[in-house]
Structures are given as structure tokens and as C-alpha cells.
Amino acid sequence: MSGSTGDASPGVRRRMPYARRREQLLQVALAEFGRRGYHLTQMEHVAAAAQVSKALLYQHFASKEELFVEVTEAIVAELTGRLNAAVLAEHDSREGIRAMIRVLFDYATAEPDAWALVIRHLDKPEVGPELRELRDRLGTAFADLLLRRRRADPKLSPAALAVNEHRARLLVPLMYGSMLSMVSWWLEHPDTPRERAEQMAVEFIWLGLDRLRTGERLPKG
């Protein structure tokens, strides 16, 4: 079937199927949100990059907010699915952390636009709940890794476990913050071997945690 597509360019061409057009618009929007950020990206930017009219874009998405929600929901589903699968495959806490770091490096390498969007917006609650959900899922995964051995210890009292749980929650933002920062730094310094960057991230997190677990603390003051 031929007819006007609503594309910005003039002329008559075969209309792109609805589902494929929608997927194309989501991919273009992902790139624009990753490059400009949510607040600076306008619907006209997405339409121009996709080479369609704003009217056609609004046929698929009623607002920029709706478009951003769909983009971020896809990111959250994909990344958390990969992280969950990697962690569940490991029974050792250290190897679980190593697996999570590997997934983050893989994802950032394969999906640079999605990674840029996550880094820009993860700690900005005003852009919607979807990325907060990603942050919360990351935190839960990290806490579970920290507590895996403790929860399996039959000698640990409920009170002691509660103390450990509280401590783990305090450590979570430090852990995922350092991992995300390391991945982003490595993307900007590709001359550094990935294996070295991954190993440094594992050692930074694991050795620091190990010293805390043994009770080592800095003196106050």
C-alpha cells in the first residue's frame, strides 16, 4: 500500500508498518535522550532525527514523558534481566560481584546510548520511577550478595543478622556508585585493557568489604 507516511521528506513512499515505525522511534529517542538528557530533549529533536513529522511521532507517543517511560522501561527490563541471570548463576559472593561487573561492562559496550541515559538520569527522581526502580534493583542485588554468606550461617542470631543487613544497606550506594563510575571511566579511556578495569573494580569492592567484615574501622576524629 502506498501513500503519505507523515515523513518530513516530501513525496510518496511505502508506509512503514506500525510496529516497526514505533521501534524505530524508540531507538532514535534513546539516542537523543542519551545524548541530550531528558530535559533538553524535545519531541521535535526526536522527529527530526527519525526524519518524520512531529504529527507522526505524536501518533505513536502522546507526550515526551510517555516516550521516555517506554525507553527507560525497556532499559530496566533488559539490564536487570542480565544482572539477575548473572548473579543467580554464582553461589559465591565474590564471583557474584565479578559477574555483575562483567554484565555492566558488557552492557555499556553493546548499548552505549542506553548506558549514557542511565548514567545521566539514575539519581534524578524527577524524570520518573523507572530508573529509580533500576537503582533499587541494583541495590537489592548488591545487598543480597553481601548478605549471602551471613544468611546461610546458622550461628548468626537474628539481632546480628539485622545489624549486618543495616550495614549492607549503607554500603550499597557506595558499591553501585563505584562500579558505574568505573565503567564510565573505562569507556572514556579505551586504551586501558578492559580486563584490568574489571579486576580493579572487583578488588576495590571486595577488598574494602573484606576489611569492613573483619571489623576494621578508622579511628574517629
UniProtKB/TrEMBL annotation:
Keywords: DNA-binding
Gene3D superfamilies: Tetracycline Repressor, domain 2
Annotated InterPro entries: Homeodomain-like_sf, HTH-type_TetR-like_transc_reg, HTH_TetR, Tet_transcr_reg_TetR-rel_C_sf
Key word Protein biosynthesis present: no
Residues in the DNA-binding region annotation: 42-61
Chain ranges of the HTH tetR-type domain: 19-79
Pfam families in the record: TetR_N
Domain of life: Bacteria
PANTHER family: HTH-TYPE TRANSCRIPTIONAL REGULATOR RUTR, POSSIBLE TRANSCRIPTIONAL REGULATORY PROTEIN (PROBABLY TETR-FAMILY)
The protein, known as: TetR/AcrR family transcriptional regulator
Organism field: Actinomadura sediminis
Lineage: Bacteria, Bacillati, Actinomycetota, Actinomycetes, Streptosporangiales
